[in-house]
Inverse folding.
């Protein structure tokens, strides 16, 4: 690998997982109650993709990382406050509806246009990263559709590891059924890698990296193009919270022996 | 009128697997509700065995793409084979079992046939003559039902959502479609399967019980010390005796990944919840886990839930478990092991 990879990470924003979420109906389709007020976080699997991208870029000289995100501008700015210190990247924002009920096809079209607009992007060196599913729609469609639009014929989903080889090829581990990994050898870029958790912990905040990133983030946000991400014809009949609030029996007054016996009886039922 | 195709992947010399039989049951019902015929298309190195196992499913016609190029789950070859089959069948609805192999290609396939795909579907019904599908959003926190006008519409059915069809084998006449792979479809070679060290005996997707170990197993106990070695021994003995599947919270697997001396057999593959899996087991037992929302969203499809925790106000107590035992999990699980050994 002589010139390094050009790694484009697609990473959306999602409501902070600790928030209570409630669906509401709007003229533009289903949405979350007080959606604009909810604190946001980088989509967790996309976060892993970003950390793996930064790690890979450090390993292969000449590599560069871009982070492409769709969302409302204020939310993207809020997101960058927490993400910018984690890894070095150039930010490519797109203004549009990042809600989980919107169409993956519209979302993919908007992100594809943004990626095609990256100056100097070399398709022969491109690794398209992202989460294998989002924590909003969770369909695993967007990244695949972008890869298809870009004509990339090698796609991997549920990735936990990439190992570059000296000749430019790389091996990939993808999650498959039965808690196993499928190992593949790919001749090299371009390729799509939809990440699961990978193997890296979340990096510590690095203020220097944050300062460097923020120099390009604010101008990028100001010139973020608008994208029409909508329902694409989807007709929602209902969106509702599950109704299974359980009537929990709290057992405080049984001995260890009695609890153990009750658990064993329950397991054997 | 809709034209329905069941599209699946087959292993050489093997009958249709459980996921394919589940999809066959769903397609059969959908076709009956719509009063229309349906076909089957299979991809694999050898597909006749699987086709024969589906011969009495009610499908009108069988298509297939087979050969060495289609033995393994490779994006490019699977995509080209599926594209050829969908185009040949002229189906308007394509139902696929939502396996890792199928999910890797269905969205790109929809783009190639100028249609749409939806994945992780837990239900496909006909309401007022309209096909309506359901799936979960925001990591199993809310369920939506919807229809689409676009065709072909590719529907990936989540495994475990319907009962598999019970079929007797026969002989299927399969119309073979030839797909020539271009050179750029052979850039990837599947080398094989790997089982991460430590998870082979702990993750059992078909187990009746999910046993979740939380970070509390590695925390300091009443004597001021942590007892990770004891925790390992108790948990592994329980898994051995109960044949349960082991799950974990993110905090515990993160601690393992960061090199702390914790539970050596725990990896990210064990993780259940927001950034982990959403397994389907009839029962689940959580231990030393607080039952916070990011973890509990992974329990959406666990029917009976019990938890052991020293905190009577933990998340499980707030309507997330059927029973919460307020007790020391070390003592309780050691006793459970003792009883299971009898």
């Amino acid at each position: 690998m002589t010139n390094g990879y050009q790694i484009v990470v697609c990473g959306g924003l999602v409501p902070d997982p600790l928030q209570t979420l409630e669906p509401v109906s709007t003229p533009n389709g289903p949405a979350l109650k007080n959606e604009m007020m909810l604190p946001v976080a980088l989509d967790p699997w996309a976060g892993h993709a970003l950390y793996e991208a930064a790690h890979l870029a450090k390993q292969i000289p000449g590599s560069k990382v871009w982070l492409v995100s769709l969302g409302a501008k204020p939310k993207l700015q809020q997101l960058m406050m927490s993400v910018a210190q984690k890894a070095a990247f150039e930010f490519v924002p797109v203004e549009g509806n990042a809600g989980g009920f919107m169409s993956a096809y519209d979302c993919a079209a908007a992100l594809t246009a943004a990626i095609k607009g990256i100056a100097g992007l070399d398709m022969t060196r491109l690794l398209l990263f992202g989460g294998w599913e989002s924590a909003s729609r969770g369909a695993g469609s967007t990244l695949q559709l972008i890869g298809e639009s870009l004509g990339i014929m090698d796609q991997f989903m549920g990735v936990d590891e990439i190992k570059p080889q000296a000749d430019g090829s790389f091996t990939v581990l993808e999650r498959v059924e039965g808690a196993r990994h499928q190992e593949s050898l790919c001749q090299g870029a371009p390729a799509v890698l939809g990440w699961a958790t990978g193997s890296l912990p979340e990096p510590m905040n690095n203020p220097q990296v944050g300062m460097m990133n923020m120099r390009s983030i604010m101008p990028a946000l100001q010139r973020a193009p608008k994208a029409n991400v909508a329902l694409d014809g989807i007709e929602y009949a209902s969106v509702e919270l599950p109704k299974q609030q359980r009537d929990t029996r709290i057992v405080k007054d049984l001995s260890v022996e009695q609890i153990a016996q009750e658990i064993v009886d329950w397991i054997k039922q | 009128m809709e034209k329905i195709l069941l599209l699946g992947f087959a292993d050489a010399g093997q009958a249709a697997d459980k996921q394919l039989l589940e999809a066959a049951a769903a397609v059969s019902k959908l076709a009956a509700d719509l009063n229309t015929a349906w076909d089957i298309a299979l991809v694999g190195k050898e597909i006749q065995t699987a086709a024969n196992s589906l011969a009495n499913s009610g499908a009108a016609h069988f298509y297939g793409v087979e050969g060495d190029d289609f033995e393994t789950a490779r994006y490019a070859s699977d995509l080209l084979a599926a594209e050829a089959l969908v185009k040949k069948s002229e189906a308007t609805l394509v139902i696929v079992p939502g396996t890792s192999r199928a999910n890797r290609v269905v969205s790109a396939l929809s783009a190639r046939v100028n249609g749409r795909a939806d994945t992780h579907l837990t239900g496909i019904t006909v309401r007022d003559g309209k096909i309506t599908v359901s799936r979960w959003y925001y990591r199993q926190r809310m369920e939506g039902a919807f229809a689409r006008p676009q065709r072909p519409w590719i529907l990936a059915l989540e495994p475990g959502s319907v009962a598999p069809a019970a079929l007797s084998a026969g002989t299927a006449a399969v119309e073979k479609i030839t797909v020539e792979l271009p050179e750029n479809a052979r850039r990837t070679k599947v080398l094989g399967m790997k089982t991460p060290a430590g998870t082979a005996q702990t993750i059992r997707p078909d187990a009746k019980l999910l046993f979740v170990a939380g970070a509390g197993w590695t925390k300091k106990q009443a004597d001021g010390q942590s007892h990770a070695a004891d925790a390992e021994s108790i948990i592994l003995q329980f898994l051995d005796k109960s044949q349960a599947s082991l799950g974990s919270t993110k905090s515990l697997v993160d601690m393992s990944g960061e090199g702390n001396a914790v539970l050596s057999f725990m990896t990210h593959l064990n993780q259940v919840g927001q950034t982990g899996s959403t397994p389907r087991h009839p029962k689940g037992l959580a231990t030393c886990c607080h039952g916070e929302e990011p973890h509990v969203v992974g329990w959406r499809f666990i029917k009976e839930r019990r938890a052991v925790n020293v905190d009577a106000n933990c998340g499980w107590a707030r309507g997330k478990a059927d029973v919460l035992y307020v007790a020391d999990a070390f003592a309780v699980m050691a006793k459970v092991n003792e009883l299971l050994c009898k």
Q: What stands out?
A: The domain at 6-222 of chain A is CATH 3.40.50.620 (Rossmann fold). Chain A touches chain B through 87 residues (CB under 8 Å).
